[in-house]
Amino acid sequence: MSSPVSPSVTQLPAASEQEARIKHLPAEARAAFQRFQTGGDTAGLDPVIFAILQDFIPLAPAVPLHEQPGTTRLIDELGFDSLSITEVVFFTEDLFGITITNEEIIQVRTLDDLRGFIHRKVAVRAKR
C-alpha cells in the first residue's frame, strides 16, 4: 500500500512529459534540468527558472533576465502581471511536481525572491 501524498506535494510527471515541457527551453536550461533530475542538483536550477520567466514575460527586457540584479521587481520593473505570474506558477508546479499557493506567491516580489522560493520548494520536494 502506498503512502498518501502530502497536500503540498504533487506527483512528478513522467520523464517523457517533463522532457516535452522543456524541449523549447535553451540548451543550458535543459541541461540544468537534467542535472536536477539525475542528481537532485537544486543549486543549478537558475537557468531553468530564468528560461521559464522568459517564456511568460509580457515584454522582453533590454537586459537578459540572468543579467538583471536580484533586486529587480517582477511586476514593477519586468512588467509581469497576474496572468503571466499565474502561467509561471502553473508551469513550475507541473515541471517540478510542487504546489505553490496564492499566499506563498504573493510574497515573491523580486528575481531573488522567486529564485530562493523555487529552490526551497524543489529542495523540499527532492527530499521526499
What share of residues is helical?
Answer: 40-55%
Structural class: mainly alpha
Could you give a short account of the major beta sheet? none
The radius of gyration over CA amounts to: 14 Å
CATH fold group: Non-ribosomal Peptide Synthetase Peptidyl Carrier Protein, Chain A
* Count of all domains: 1
Order of helices and strands: HHHHHH
C-alpha geometry: globular
How far apart, in Å, are the first and last alpha carbons?
A: 17 Å
Instruction: Please give the CATH architecture.
Output: Orthogonal Bundle
Number of helices: 6
Q: Tell me the fraction of residues in β-strands, as a range.
A: under 5%
Average pLDDT reading: 87
According to CATH, the homologous superfamily is ACP-like
Provide a descriptive summary of the structure in words.
This protein has 128 residues and is mainly α. It has a single domain, classed as Non-ribosomal Peptide Synthetase Peptidyl Carrier Protein, Chain A (Orthogonal Bundle), CATH 1.10.1200.10. The chain has six helices and no strands. The chain has helices spanning 15-22, 27-39, 46-56, 82-96, 102-105, 111-127. Helix 2 (27-39) crosses helix 3 (46-56) and helix 3 (46-56) crosses helix 4. It starts with 14 loop residues before the first helix and ends with a helix. Residues 1-9 have low confidence and may be disordered.
Outline of this structure?
The protein has about 130 residues and is an all-alpha fold. The chain contains six helices and no strands.
Short descriptors:
0% strand, 128 residues, 6 helices, globular, Non-ribosomal Peptide Synthetase Peptidyl Carrier Protein, Chain A, mainly alpha
